[in-house]
Fold this protein.
Amino acid sequence: MKTIKLTLLCCLLSAFTFADVSQSEKDALLALYNATNGESWKTSWNINEPISDWYGVTIENDKVVAISLTFNNLNGQLPNEIAQLKSLRKLNLSFNKLQGELPKALTTMIGLEELKLFSNNFIGAIPEDIGNLTNLKMLELYNNGFSGVIPSSIGNLSNLETLILSSNQLIGKLPASISNLKSLKVLSLFDNSLLGTVPSSIGDLTELEELVLSNNAFYGNLPGELAQLSNLKTLLLSNNGFKGNYASLKDELPNIVDFDLDEVNLKGALATLDDEEDDD
């Protein structure tokens, strides 16, 4: 009897240890593997082994909840099937050779909390429906070839703490909806072709610790509301067309560490309300 009980216990433990995900999720992982030349990955998957042993895949309660395949020589396009990973919270495919446009199906993955696709070769527009991913805390798409405007729906990402879209080919103005991102701590947009003035509503982002707008085509007066961002540690604004003198801004921000302006902007005071109205 003891032997039977011990055998049953071992079987139960084995079943628990090697519990597998649904066929739908397995198919999604295999689609990712096949679409990105999985056999040539730096660390590949043995698709004959349990998925719990696959490199970079995290499983909880028989659901795939995270994929991290950074620096792994993924080469190809993201397949639409990736949206079948309904429980995925973290997707990090940075520092690879992924290309093409982001699949629209990606915007249906509403459980995502972190989407990190930086340092790849993606092109095309950031999907307009990116605002569907309302659980996102981190959106990092920098160092790619994304073009077009920043979607206004990005303002729906009320839980977002980090937004890094730097080193792409983005154009147009900052969407007014960015002022809705009350939890935002990092806003980095440098090295694009963004233009227009910085809206005074930027002062609503009171949690902001890093604001990087360098190497764009912004112009006009900086809003005095920047002085409300008392948590700012980094403010980089050089290589734009800002007018006026803003050296005193550094004195207005008690925690500032990294501060960068063009030489022409190094003396004087913040823009007054009248200056901002004149600029309009």
In short: Residues 1 and 7 are 10 Å apart (CA to CA). Residues 1-19, 272-280 have pLDDT under 50 and may be disordered.
